[in-house]
Amino acid sequence: MSRHSPRARAGEDRANLYDEITNKIIGELEAGRAPWVQPWGAVKPSLAIPKSAATGRQYSGINVLILWGAATERAFTGQSWLTFRQALSLGGHVRKGERGTTVVYADRFVPVDERQRASETGDEAQAIPFLKRFTVIMSFEEVSAALAQGYSTVLIPCGAVEQHGPHLPLCMDADHADALAAKVARHLGTALIAPTIKVGCSAHHLVFPGTISLRPETFESICLDYCTSLAQHGFRRILLFSGHIGNFPVLRDMLLRLRRAVSPDVEIDAFCDAIAWIDKWRSAVRDAGGDPSAVGGHADIAETSLMMWLRPDSVRLDRFEVGYLGALSEQQLQLMWKNGIKSITHNGIIGDPHGSTAEIGARCLEAIADLLATSFGR
Ligand SMILES: [Zn+2]
After folding, report:
1. How far does residue 297's CA lie from ligand 1's centre (Å)?
2. Separation of 208 CA from ligand 1 center, angstroms?
3. How far does residue 52's CA lie from ligand 1's centre (Å)?
4. Ligand 1 center to residue 255 CA distance, Å?
5. How far apart are CA 107 and CA 211, in angstroms?
6. How far apart are the CA of 15 and the centre of ligand 1, in A?
7. Close Cβ partners of 215 (under 8 Å, ≥ 6 residues apart)
8. Which of 149, 172, 197 is the last residue of a domain?
């Protein structure tokens, strides 16, 4: 379970990451503490560089200051940190207590245009540095404390492990769901995030190797067990959404049965509006200077741009191909569900990845997060 807590002081809710970190450092300085010469007081946390308990990799730069500060503030004596995902993958469970600590992830990306310009002129491509944030592991005590503080909403992100053309990884939809969850939770304010259900219903992609598909009844059983577990702990709003549009009809179909499985004071909702989703992508692509007609909904300009924003290294820029273009008729859709996606597109792409940029990806992510938050009633 991870949590995106609202900022401590009113008015800072929308503060961007840069402001937040800057304010934190200024706050420390105003309080007479230079974070980098911290007199650790009675707590005496290890002055070792904070490191990931899962990988042993050391945090660097500003993250060292953030995690030292958090360790001092909360009287932690160790300097090993885990993301929620890492803890799960190590078979970890959650401990009762407080919230995760936001650290930032700094990376660089080279926009496609810049890559092209550089290859044409022989110049070195200019990389753009950026920061992302994620939340370090919550314990069960932290979940319990969050519930007591009114964090009674929980998001269940759903994904898929399926082909996304020759240029995108199989984990596209699961990664997208992870990223959306963080943004939607922030919009909603008092929401926790359950672990993403990474595999979904992708039967129509199975002809492509690497695709893993759950039967609808398997997917429903997993969703049901998530809901009943979380309802038992006191969550009163359980919100499901999917980075994979192919899960939408299955979610819609199971919704009544999920609701019947929990007590009537627990609200369960699922976002299933594929048309609104695609519309948002088209306008986001247009707003960011891309061609909205390249949006087809699968491994297209929207999804490719999203991955260029979220995991730039995972995009095979030299493997872009045009997919099926144009609107899908009802007949074609039926054919796709029955005979698989190859009946309409030989390379697995619906839409066109050409023209994708990280900027379009960032815009698409915001647009869908906003759509979900609005639909769930932020
Ligand atoms: Zn997808």
Report:
1. 7
2. 14
3. 30
4. 22
5. 29
6. 30
7. 201
8. 149
Instruction: Round to whole Å and give the CA distance between 175 and 129.
Output: 21
Ligand 1 (single-atom ion) residues, CB below 5 Å: 172-173
Instruction: State the total domains in the chain.
Output: 2
Beta bridge pairs of residue 141:
96
pLDDT tens-digit profile, the chain (378 residues) = 655 544 333 344 445 556 666 666 666 566 655 544 433 333 344 456 666 665 666 666 666 666 655 555 544 545 555 554 555 455 554 444 434 444 444 444 455 567 778 888 888 777 654 333 334 467 888 888 888 888 899 999 999 999 999 999 999 999 999 999 999 998 998 889 999 999 999 999 999 999 999 999 999 999 999 999 999 999 999 999 999 999 999 999 999 999 999 999 999 999 999 999 999 999 999 999 999 999 999 999 999 999 999 999 999 999 999 999 988 888 888 888 889 999 999 999 999 999 999 999 999 999 999 999 999 996
Q: Which domain holds residue 78?
A: 16-37+47-149
Is residue 106 in some structural domain?
Answer: yes
- The pTM of this model reads 0.67
Give dist(CA 224, CA 219) in Å, integer. 9
Cα of 135 from ligand 1 centre, angstroms: 24
Among 133, 149, 165, residue at a domain's last position: 149
Whether 51 is covered by a domain: the verdict is yes
173 inside domain: no
DSSP assignment letter at 243: S
Give 203 Cα–ligand 1 centroid separation in angstroms.
14
Q: Is residue 344 part of a domain?
A: yes
Determine contact, residues 277/246, Cβ cutoff 8 Å.
no
A 10 A CB-CB count for 222 gives: 16
